[in-house]
Design goal:
single chain, 899 residues, eight-stranded mixed beta sheet, seven-stranded mixed beta sheet, 50% helix, globular, membrane
Amino acid sequence: MKQRPLIVFTVSWIAGSSAAYACSGPRLLLLIAGASLLLAALGMYRRDFLRTVIIIWCALAASGAYWELQEAANVSKLPEALQAADAAQIDGASVRMTGMIASAVEVDGDRADFVMSVRQAVPIDGNTASREPNSRDAGTSTGSERTVSEKVMVQVKLKSRQEQEAARQWQRGDRVRISGSLAQPQSARNFGGFDYRQYLVTQKIHWLFKAAGASNVQASAPSGLGMTLLLRWNDQARNSLSGMIDRIFQEPHAGYMKGLIIGLQDDLDPETYAEFSQLGLTHILAISGMHVAVYVGCLLYIFSLLRLSREKSLLLVMLLVPLYVLLSGVSPSVVRAGIMSMIGLYAARKGMLKDGLNILSAAALLMLLWNPYYLLSVSFQLSFLVTAGLMVYVPLIHPQLSFLPSKIAGAVGVTLIAQLVSFPLTIYYFNQFSLLSFAANFVLVPFITFLVLPVGTAALLIGSLWLSGGKMLAAAAEWLDDLSFWLVKWMNGYPQFVTIWKSPSPVWIASYFIALYGLLYFGKGWSLSRRQMAVEPDATVPLEVPPAARRPEAALQSKTKTRLAAGALGGLCILIVLLYAGYQPEHFRGAGAVQVLDVGQGDSILITTPQGKHLLVDGGGTVSFRKAEDGWKERKQPFEVGAKVLVPLLKKRGIHRLDAVIVTHGDQDHAGGMQAVLDQIPVGAFLFNGTMAGTAAFDRLMAAAVDKHIPIYAIHQGMNYAPDGRTQLVFLGPILSQTDQEALPVVKDQNHDSVVFMLEMNGGRFLFTGDMDKASEEQILETLDSGRLDEAVADNGQGVHEPALQTAGEMLEAPVDVIKIAHHGSKTASSAEWLSRWKPAAAVISAGVNNLYGHPHADVLQRISEEGAAVYRTDLQGEIQFSVKSGKIRVRTKLITKS
């Protein structure tokens, strides 16, 4: 077997870096020691393998040490510069910083964001331990500015249109002095949630620096030359190209073309992006290796028309590739493609072109030496994995596609392998995969890459010189765009082909690739042997060779074919088992689970029953108090809890169907996020409080449920629901008259009519209260004391699916294990009488961090304490999970609070 030391070294380097990321310190040393012993034993057993063993060991040790050194250096210097004991001491402190804008400035609505390279910092008003005794008046610094070298993420809250326009003038390289407050980035607050703090650490950023108004930012143009000035010019060139595209193309084509041609996705229509994303086509909207290949091919063709020599053409293209990398945004995928192109062009020019895997390995190694945190980039991982997969797996699948014409077989092979190789990372990071993705990529990738992209680029080039001519060509590109959009929308019209997957483990991913390789490797051998045996009967055989002499060879070939078929079948079976196991949602091994999600100032609770049913109680929601005249503050993609937090969490846990959603009432912080849920996840039943909120958002939610043919149930006291044999719900509220039950009245104050229900699951008892008020508590207590609730259940006979497993009286007599405190801990609910009736062992409060309402109220906390109940709060502990099995409840929280 041909040894490839560069490939072995690079793969080992990646393995060593991955091990150092997963475990550090003594655990890493123990892991390296174990690997060393294993490699030493392997080297002694196979002396011819000794050189490879040495390469592997050197790469593992060096990469582990390199990662540890980078981690040791990647810490914040600001606490030391501000003479604080630790990071907690300067969290929230007012500081004035001097430095330079180190990134492009993004102005979106009422906020401007950029990275600042800090050179000096000083506290304001003595907010840290560094306050000096001779500080001047309030608002001034407490001492001389202290030198520091660190990057911070700046967020400027803009107060007017004028400030918005002023912020648009800020550019990379500007010298700035900013007064604001420091804040630590938010870490993940839900299990499996996005960790913004960890993401920024990979960018070597440890702090958010928030300024209130552009008046707190003093900016001036830079002086001198340097890399920053080059990047500043590059930003200006990208902005100029963006403006030219706006003049040539109409919307939504302008935003689409910006992503396609220069990799600028800020103006891309969110709906268009979502539709492309669902079909696995987002790689088209980001500059990738295919774009670089088209760029290089076009340049080589143009230079050939100009009759330049081969050597000059290769040299010019090699020099122009970095320019394209800069103009397209310097993402890991385009950097990888750029480095590979330059190495390949240089090798071709010198007549020593090596194979693609060596070039790919060199590109990966160079990038990881420059920045080891590239390893954690989704773009880096997908780019290198797909490229390597195409090089390794495509030759294996080609013989099995021999029944197709050669050109079609090549396209099918490349598309199929790209889909198969990217599949594990796609479901790991995005948790969904469309079964139509292969067809969409097979048709649209070549159509867009070799037709739409060149026509759009030509329109931009011509339009830069002759605007009318550019617009005429742009019209043709827009017609092609419309055709692409129509096809994407048509394919998305079949949501049943979209599958949702939980994030797989690294072991699952490794097993998948091994099984896939085995399937294709043995499949290739079987295909070749079958074709060989089919050809042999026609071969000329000497007459002097008797048939008996030919039988052993035929038997051997048949036996080999059988072994190959068995190997391919084994690989296929392993793949099927892996896919089946990977498609199953998260389970709790026979336990039921109540997962109180942290959705900020709102409610959202996921219930997973012992037999795997999933119920979602409320969906959180983003409440906006923005006035009509403040339209300029609206952001291109405003944060919405349902789409940004709730749906990704459900998908990450592999929940591809919700058996029921329960909207306790129509307030936005409970019902708002349900819109995204209904849009993206199949729902079996929609339960609500039997009233309309009278808002446009709630009307849209109800209309969506009707359009999707979801059974709708108006809940009232006396109804019940048993999703499986070990779970049941009895609804205690709202208490509605017969007229209200039939009329669906519009009720502006929704809190009083919240859905209230008791959940009994695996012997555990939970009480859910929505935003009920004291009046509602009193009504329910009255029905309980009078015994009318038990009679109502028996007489009503209504259930969402099945009758209750026991009477309401039996369910409601004993104390509850956990009570969900109503209205986020507001003093308008959770009276002493209500808590005394249920005698909860634990109380859970869903409230936003530092919310404007002061939830939970101190009086409520006092009343809970008097009942002797443990208190769990999402604002302090993030997501709270209760696992119930055999009447025993275990609790775990995402964040650990200090006692």
